[in-house]
Design goal:
The protein has about 240 residues and is an alpha+beta fold. It has a single domain, classed as endopeptidase fold (from Nostoc punctiforme). It has 6 helices and 5 strands; from the N terminus they run E-H-E-E-E-E-H-H-H-H-H. Helix 5 runs antiparallel to helix 6. The longest helix has about 50 residues. It is elongated and about 85 Å long. The protein starts with a strand and ends with a helix.
């Protein structure tokens, strides 16, 4: 059985000393101070003196190796023994060949497919525990926030569509009620769904009320332009309905 070790680095390859120092401060406060997490790079060592990790590149695989704890791009922090694997060195080499094909460099994503995700997958195939939660907690939080934002935007759009449909049904219902009352009062035949000139004022009030209800429910988001287009289409339908003979 071979020991599996994860090497943890502070991410200090931004090209700016000020930014690098800020990241080090963040890691000291959030990891060393309160144990929440930070901005880290990780790599796995098993069989031999090299560590394996993953990063971005435009072409080819993103999987690479270097001497353990010697990655020149980052500031070394610590190592953690994750356990021991039952895989033979032959099996481990086969795993690395598979991951080299499965993790091309251009698919790298800071929030959802970074070096820490790669190490988790590698640990799973080696049969040892995954990285401690604090190593990749910031990326996971960012990914979750992005997913929640996208889901919320989709639900707001769906709610707007449903409200527009409901307002159209309500408008037609109110128009038919007005027509029926008018026919009963005047005793004159009138086609269902048509409107007399004397009722135009009432219908305009109803239309204004419905439009106000839509404007009240409209969220102040990046979809405002799209919502205005939908309201314009609704107003056009109302105008066409009033002009029917």
């Amino acid at each position: 059985m071979a020991e599996v070790v994860v090497h943890i680095y502070d991410v200090t390859n931004t090209g700016s000393d000020k930014t690098n120092n800020t990241i080090l401060q963040i890691n000291r406060i959030f990891k060393d101070g309160i144990g929440l997490g930070g901005i880290f790079h990780s790599a796995i060592q098993v069989y031999g003196n090299d560590e394996w990790s993953y990063g971005y590149c435009e072409q080819g695989t993103g999987v690479f190796r270097c001497p353990s704890s010697k990655n020149p791009m980052y500031t070394y922090r610590e190592k953690i023994v994750l356990g021991r694997t039952d895989c033979t060195i032959f099996m481990v080499n086969q795993i690395f060949r598979e991951l080299t094909r499965e993790w091309p460099g251009h698919t790298y994503d800071l929030l959802s497919r970074n070096c820490n995700h790669f190490c988790d997958v590698l640990c799973d195939r080696l049969g040892v525990p995954k990285l401690p939660g604090w190593v990749n907690r910031f990326a996971q939080a960012g990914d979750t926030a992005l997913e929640v934002a996208e889901t919320t935007a989709m639900r707001l759009k769906q709610a707007k569509t449903e409200l527009l449909s409901a307002s159209k049904v309500a408008y037609r219902f109110l128009s038919n009620v007005t027509s029926s009352v008018t026919n009963s009062t005047n005793g004159s035949p009138q086609q269902p769904g048509t409107v007399n000139n004397s009722d135009n004022g009432n219908l305009r009030i109803q239309g204004t009320w419905l439009k106000g209800m839509l404007n009240t429910s409209k969220p102040s988001t990046s979809t405002e332009i799209e919502n205005k287009d939908e309201d314009a289409n609704h107003d056009s339908e109302v105008l066409q309905f009033q002009q029917q003979p």
